[in-house]
Amino acid sequence: MNYREKALVFHCAEDTLLGILSVPERAEDTGVVVIVGGPQYRAGSHRQFVLLSRALASAGYAVLRFDYRGMGDSSGDARDFLGANADVAAAIDAMQTHMPNVRNVVLWGLCDGASAALLYCDETSDERVAGLCLLNPWVRSDASLARTQVKHYYTQRLLQRDFWYKLFSGKVAMKALSGLLRNLQMSAGRSSPSQVAASFQQRMARAWSCFPGGILLLLSGKDYTAKEFLGYAQSDPAWQAAWRHPKLSRHDLPEADHTFSDGQARRMVEQLTSDWLQTQAPIDNAPRQAPLVQSS
Amino acid sequence: MSVQPNAFFLDTPGGPRFCQLYSAQGSIPRGMVLYVHPFTEEMNKSRRMAALQARALCAAGYTVLQFDLHGCGDSSGDFGDATWQGWVDDTVFAGQWLKAKSSAPLWLWGLRAGCLLAVEAAKSLGPCDLLFWAPTPSGKPLLQQFLRLKAAGDMVGGQAKVIMEGLRQQLAAGHAVEIAGYALSRGMAQGLEQAALIPLAHVRRVVWLELSTRPDASLTPVAVSTIAGWREAGVTLQPQIVNGPAFWQTTEIEEAPALIAATVASMSTPVDAVRDQATSLDMVT
């Protein structure tokens, strides 16, 4: 399907944000808002978000990708994913203003963009958000990083013969040993309950568990961020309910790196997103077209 | 007050290209500035600095056009289909479009590989001034660095040389290679490899700004000899090393406020005032 691209300028508090809207010839009533993560602007690493938007627009979905305040071409002071709620709200508003027939919005985020999507839902419970596409969500804390390193690096290292050989011959530097010990201590540590209540990871878990729509989770095999997320979400009590989410679709891409930086991985993400959107649209629209009577 | 550019897609012979036009306040602009962005991820990382500089120049009375090349940023096309010559043509088209708007002096502002494109485009654009930010004096080392990304990714114990040779052979045979998410065509690799900051006599002046966080930084020997070549061609050249990070390659987005101030100050100094300037460099912090 043909599509066109339009530059949008919209406001968020005192600042102006720049976004690019990809408009399909015949748009579905679900639109996608891409939340950019990390040190990237709306095009994404190796233009991943440009190409994703074009692929989804070809499949009939309007897509808006934008720079939040202080990033890329948007004005304002630099900020990170923890302060992006007003920006996400402004983007959803902009999508609705320019695409009046779009009734549902799916938030699509990679890395801390995925975290920002969940934090937005936790803060606002915005009913316009009908679905979440979360890729390699960012949950890093000192403890989770230490646990990931212990699990995936040191475990492997401890099984290697030359490590023990070097250790006994005194060739393992004290620095490396003390790093291991520090990591072991930190990985065993638990945050106090008051810290837990306030942490962004816990708010992400709460948003995930309470989210009424579908969730697409994509995880890269060659990515510490994804491993850390899995480690965290499988061990932390707050995430147990999240894993049982009835509308969770999870796909692992063992050969992909953090940003899906080869053509094959990138195309798989485009395809998985597009396929998932197709399965979502009718379910999420059904109650709005004809309210269902509760049978029990 | 924040300056708001006009964002639009410009129709070019090669397809729609994403543009942002920061129009100078007031009646007659002091200059018309075309920003030529760097190569691949360097372009992404420097987007914030380019926007900050464009706003500062606009406030200082310049009109600035930010333009995404074929297959880059929000412009049409795939990176893998873009060629170096196509990028030169894009730059010339954007320069002519900007020139048609005003008779104020034309500036081509390049960052890294963007400086190489600016020089090639300047051949077709007539008299103009050049602003170089951390220029790469030739494209060859840049291509080499880019190919090394692939070699580093694929390397299994000392195979880098073999992999590099393989990549070059693939390119020479006309096949694209995919590196860090970018498909590099032969047309792009060849053009980049041959590009250099060859002096042009019709350029009025060059503002050459480098960045360093070390107080004792000096220009590289390649930069010194390139600058000498431009001066021999009769071009007024202002080199300066400014305090700041190499923001086009840092992990997080970084800003270099001293560079923004030095850029506005250098461009605003009349050519006569800088002609015959000594070659010594003052570190600006």
From TrEMBL, chain A:
Residues 46-269 form the AB hydrolase-1 domain. Keywords: Hydrolase. InterPro entries: AB_hydrolase_1 (IPR000073), AB_hydrolase_Est10 (IPR053145), AB_hydrolase_fold (IPR029058), Hydrolase-1_PEP (IPR017531). The keyword Electron transport does not apply. Coiled coil: none annotated. GO terms for molecular function: carboxylic ester hydrolase activity. This is Hydrolase 1, exosortase A system-associated. It comes from Rhodoferax koreensis. The lineage of its organism: Bacteria, Pseudomonadati, Pseudomonadota, Betaproteobacteria, Burkholderiales.
TrEMBL record, chain B:
SUPFAM superfamilies: alpha/beta-Hydrolases. It comes from the Bacteria. The keyword Membrane does not apply. InterPro entries: AB_hydrolase_fold, Hydrolase-2_PEP, Hydrolase_4. The keyword Cytoplasm does not apply. GO terms for molecular function: hydrolase activity. Keywords: Hydrolase. Residues 29-124 form the Serine aminopeptidase S33 domain. NCBIfam families: hydr2_PEP. This is Hydrolase 2, exosortase A system-associated. The lineage of its organism: Bacteria, Pseudomonadati, Pseudomonadota, Betaproteobacteria, Burkholderiales.
